[in-house]
Design brief:
There is one protein chain. By secondary structure, the chain is mainly α. It has a single domain, classed as Amino acid/polyamine transporter I (Up-down Bundle). The chain has helices at about 15-25, 30-70, 80-85, 90-105, 105-120, 145-160, 165-190, 210-215, 220-225, 230-240, 245, 265-290, 295-300, 305-315, 315-350, 370-380, 380-385, 390-420, 425-445, 460-485; strands at about 135, 140. Strands 1-2 form a two-stranded antiparallel sheet. Strand 1 (about 135) and strand 2 (about 140) form a beta hairpin. The chain is globular and about 60 Å long. The two termini are about 35 Å apart.
Length: about 475
């Protein structure tokens, strides 16, 4: 009788593919809309730039723990696998369960941005606003937008199913176009007569709610903002606190560790470059917006897509097209990357019996975790149905999940170094700092701090977190009961 060899994941990812995976997950829709939604009002130009730079430094410190652990345990599952090997399966389940929230929620959230991109680029056309529609949490959902987003989700799920190399090639093309578009915007901002530093005030942002409470209107908000800037520390912290959300993506690299076709020594370089590119995109988008738009607080209060307006004022139709290409690539690369990361994490957890065994099944031809990918697709179809505002309650958990992954990876690296009697004092210090920063991020997100605007969870997000923990506890209890029988 012929022996059948166990199917394994395919080693087909190059360093460029892995960089594209990380960078494509780091940069999404938020980096293009948050200059007007969060960054400029909460932190201004200076506060955002400092916060993003500090966030990048912290992420690089944490990345060294990842780079230390990946060669030790080069298996799918990443942080889940590290935690399992160093702290056992019970603690690993906690880590893995929160990481599922961090990764999987980003796929449907990115899909809801597709209709907004079309509307933003040509709001007068309302191309996708046809058929029946309804409203959830104040967000209008149209049949046309649902169909278009669903088609995109299905196409990218199929690409993921057809092999990791194909997914890597598509991801690299999308990430390359994204970088080229933002770099072109950066150069235009340097040479354009429209971009002037005097337009950047208030450089530390302003409190929109306080402004309106004091009687400011959309007509005079600029004058109020210039005289009522936020405190420097609170401005920086307001954006620094969401660094785990902003940079979540570099940590997807270990999820694909079984599929690398290169030396693990290259991992730290790939992570650092992806983080630095992410910092460049966030800072460029925010700074160019403020530099081009005179009295930008007026545009913020009016609810404009301020980056799109700035690009169009600076470069005309080409600027609008540039933003359209960049944000489309960001959204699509996010869908692609988080499909890959989510499915590999679920595949790894299923192999350890913490998720149904069906998720550990690999496709016979392509060697991809087909059932996990299909499940991710089915869950992601909730995005076009529920709409962006409702999903925002879930996505707030993304930063918590990422912070948990950072903490357990840093803790695992520290424990492993002690067990191996590794005397690298610098790296050991980085692991401790990684744990401290991770806990700090969770505190900033979960505990309201006076004077810190727009950071901690809203009521709905707290409720979603409680529900997610309860479902995880039930799943853990069921699996534990099965093992003890």
């Amino acid at each position: 009788m012929k022996e059948t060899k166990e199917k394994t994941l395919q080693r087909q990812l190059s360093p460029m593919h892995v960089w594209a995976l990380a960078f494509g997950c780091i940069i999404g829709w938020g980096s293009f809309v948050n200059p007007g939604k969060k960054f400029l009002p909460n932190s201004g130009v200076a506060g955002t730039a400092i916060a993003m730079a500090l966030g990048a430094i912290v992420m690089i410190i944490i990345a060294f723990s990842y780079a230390y652990m990946i060669p030790k345990y080069p298996k799918a599952g990443g942080e889940f696998t590290f935690t399992k090997e160093c702290f056992g399966k019970h603690v690993a389940f906690v880590c893995g369960w929160f990481l599922i929230a961090a990764y999987l929620t980003n796929v449907p959230m990115n899909s809801t941005a597709i209709g907004l991109i079309v509307d933003g680029l040509d709001g007068s056309a309302d191309i996708l606003k046809f058929g029946f529609h309804y409203t959830i949490a104040g967000f209008d959902i149209y049949f046309g937008e649902m169909v278009f987003a669903t088609v995109i989700l299905v196409i990218f799920a199929i690409v993921n199913l057809m092999g990791v190399k194909k997914a890597g090639i598509v991801q690299t093309i999308l990430s390359g176009m994204l970088v080229l578009s933002v770099f072109t915007l950066f150069v235009a901002g340097l040479v354009s007569s429209k971009a002037k530093g005097i337009n950047m005030a208030p450089i530390w942002g302003f409190d929109k709610n306080a402004a309106m409470a004091a009687g400011a209107t959309t007509e005079n908000i600029s004058e109020f903002a210039k005289s009522g800037t936020s405190g420097i520390i609170s401005s920086i912290l307001a954006t620094f606190a969401i660094a785990p959300w902003a940079y979540v993506g570099f940590d997807t690299i270990p999820q694909a560790a079984e599929e690398f076709n290169f030396s693990y020594k290259k991992v730290i370089g790939i992570m650092v470059v992806a983080i630095l590119f992410g910092c460049f995109v966030y800072t460029t988008n925010n700074t160019v917006t403020a530099a081009v738009l005179e009295n930008w607080p007026d545009r913020v209060m009016a609810g404009d897509w301020v980056l799109l307006v700035a690009a169009e004022e600076m470069l005309g139709v080409f600027g609008k097209t540039l933003i359209g290409v960049a944000v489309s690539c960001a959204v699509l690369s996010g869908i692609m990357g988080f499909y890959l990361a989510s499915s590999r994490l679920m595949y790894s957890m299923a192999k350890d019996a913490y998720l149904p065994k069906i998720f550990s099944k690999l496709n016979g031809k392509y060697g991809t975790p087909q059932n996990a990918i299909i499940f991710c697709l089915l869950i992601s179809l909730s995005g076009p149905i529920l709409g962006r505002e409702a999903l925002g309650w879930f996505v707030d958990m993304s930063a918590i999940g990422a912070s948990m992954g950072f903490f357990f990876t840093s803790a695992s690296a520290y424990k492993k170094m002690r067990a191996d009697r590794d005397k690298n004092a610098i790296l050991k210090t980085m692991t401790v700092l990684g744990m401290v920063f991770s806990v700090t991020f969770m505190i900033l997100q979960l505990i309201p701090i006076p004077g810190l605007v727009g950071v901690h969870f809203g009521k709905e997000s707290y409720l979603m977190l409680i529900v997610w923990v309860a479902i995880g506890a039930a799943a853990f209890s069921m699996k534990s009961n099965v093992r003890t029988k």
